[in-house]
Specification:
Length: about 80
Amino acid sequence: MLRDGLEVAIRKQANARPNRYDEMPEMRRLIHLCSMLEHKNIVKLLGYCHENRGFDTSNEFLLLVEEYMANGNLSNFIYGT
């Protein structure tokens, strides 16, 4: 939950090396484009954080901040798991 009371979902993609924000401008454009999408069937991307702790790329990760959807995930809905 954010300070303003908005519930969000945080998705962590560990070892984001192939999609490095600073090395791949297309990833930056994709994140920007996704943040502008507005459709009732698309989860809204609210923000992101890309971090690399030190020189070890195994500590690199990308966090995506998305709107929270309370009804579970798509896999559970489709497959009933």
